[in-house]
Design brief:
Blueprint lengths: L1 H23 L4 H30 L4 H19 L4 H24 L5 H25 L5 H35 L2
Pfam families: Vut_1
Keywords: Membrane, Transmembrane, Transmembrane helix
Protein name: Queuosine precursor transporter
Length: 181
């Protein structure tokens, strides 16, 4: 199951990077802002939910090297598939790495709290870091505060929605596998 989560995480990072790079080449910043919000809600929110699942699975089994390797692999794959995505791949790698580190710190600081608080509390702060770092590297200065706002809000909401949806799917799966015994 962990290999499936790793593959889903990696695939989502690559698709998000390539989609953003594709729309970034256009001239319409309003369209890019809308696409960015959709990517952040659907894909980055999903990645945050999967990241926490991988975090739990790898906690004492290589978390410190496996997560950075997965993040790096997603950025390299994005670049290899589309050389025009180099700036996005660099922004993505840096933002995911910084956000992943913050997520790790907060997730472990909240380890004695409920799973819901651990996941969403760590996602709240890591979404803020990711939303600051990505637009800064992707666009440079001056900071694109409209992108920060859209990214932060949609990542947090997407993370909560995916946490709930994936939780329901995992509960159903456990129910059906237990009832078939």
């Amino acid at each position: 199951m962990i290999n499936l989560f790793s593959l889903l995480y990696l695939l989502t990072v690559v698709v998000a990077n390539l989609a953003f790079a594709h729309f970034m080449q256009g001239e319409d910043m309003k369209q890019l802002l809308i696409v960015d919000g959709v990517i952040c809600f659907l894909m980055i929110g999903f990645d945050m939910a999967i990241r926490d699942k991988l975090h739990d699975a790898w906690e004492h089994r290589g978390l410190f090297w496996k997560m950075p390797a997965l993040i790096f692999a997603g950025s390299v794959a994005s670049y290899v598939i589309n050389k025009d995505a180099a700036q996005v791949a660099l922004a993505s790698f840096t933002a995911f790495a910084a956000a992943g580190f913050i997520d790790f710190l907060v997730y472990h600081a909240l380890r004695h709290n409920s799973h819901w608080l651990r996941v969403n509390g760590s996602n709240l702060l890591s979404a803020a870091v990711d939303s600051l770092v990505f637009p800064f590297i992707a666009f440079g200065l001056p900071m694109q505060w409209n992108f920060f706002s859209v990214e932060f809000i949609t990542k947090v909401l997407g993370g909560i929605v995916w946490f709930v949806l994936l939780g329901l799917i995992w509960q159903q799966r456990k129910y059906f596998s237990a009832s078939q015994r």
